[in-house]
Amino acid sequence: METSQVSSTPTTVRSPAIATASGNTFLCLVRFALANIRRRPERFLLSVIGIALAIACVTVVRTISASFAITGADSVTDVLGDAQLWAVPAAGAHYDSDARALVADGPAPDLGVPDGWTAVRTLSGLTDLAGQRIALRGNETVQPGEAVFGSAVAGRVGVRPGQTVTIGGRTLTVRVDGAGQSVTVAEPVAAAVVGTNGWWTVWAPPGDEKRRDLAQTFAAATGLASTADPAQQPDPHGRGLIYDTVGGAGPLTFEQKFSALFSGKVTSSTLGLISTVGLGLGFVIAVSSFLAAVHERRREFGIMSSIGLADEVLYFFLVESAIVFIAAYAVGVLGAGAAVALVIPGIATPTAWLQAAAMVAAFLPAMAIVGALVPVHRLLQQRPVTLLGGA
Known about the structure:
By secondary structure, this protein is α+β, with helices and mostly antiparallel strands. It has two domains: 25-69 and 267-388, no CATH class; 84-244, no CATH class. It has eleven helices and twelve strands. A ten-stranded mixed β-sheet has the order 7-8-6-9-5-4-10-1-12-11, sandwiched between helices. Strands 2-3 form a two-stranded antiparallel ribbon. Helix 2 crosses helix 9. It is found in: Cell membrane. The chain crosses the membrane at residues 17-37, 44-64, 271-294, 314-347, 353-374. It is a multi-pass membrane protein. Keywords: Cell membrane, Membrane, Transmembrane, Transmembrane helix, Transport.
């Protein structure tokens, strides 16, 4: 008789594997976030509006700042061209917002030009033409009977090449050259309008254009002070000041430094402070909204944490935060663009608006991540049983 031995070792029964959801996990999180938004659309709408107002405030200020920076760079480029040095009078020069160009505040300094160097004196002042305030300049490079308009001022005044205009009692033929906001005429014509106010633009000897010590060399030869910092003003009791556009320390060009002076006037003003405070308030609104959502759904998230889905809770809030901030960014930036186009079209430009929008976009990832992490961190610090108990 055959006998069989029954094993006393318990049989291990494996539970069936948990079925994994098919499809893209990110899309599932997006659908989950959208479902939560549909559950409380009023909270989503209020959060988006609050953050959008803050973003719009920052975008408007940054658009104005970027416009000033572009204006500063364009105005100094209009003066310098490809010159390496700029010698201004002791009274200095200023930017005239009506003429949209740099204007000399005093007579051009007396200058003895060393051998090998090239210097052109440019008279500078203001006049009116066709009801517009324009920057008038005069130098020896312009032919008598001719008025050279930058394309920007030509469009503003409404003149075309070949037309005639009257400046300083002279009838001149219009020629459009360059993109500046100034009108350049022969020196005698300009002198009849602006007197002797002006500056010098200086070119180095051939082959020395890239030398970093041009200003020091020219200053030693002429007795004028020199600087590579556009923020430095001439000594009112001195003879003038040489601005070095190719030397100086640091990676920024003279034009970039000059434009930074313009934009800094906006960002360091009350407008800049208001925009910073507004952005902070928008972030507080977002965090408050997410904290309220966490408190309402703590039991739901307690269940998710108890079955090992704590990471998914974090990802869910990151996705929902991203949706809120992206929607607020779109509304805020478009609203800011419409506002500046309607209120200050003469200052703000599409390029400045795009630069401002890009700058604000750089803050979004950090704000969205931190906005989600703050409430989720508080949530995940609690045990699932505490969340399920509603304590």
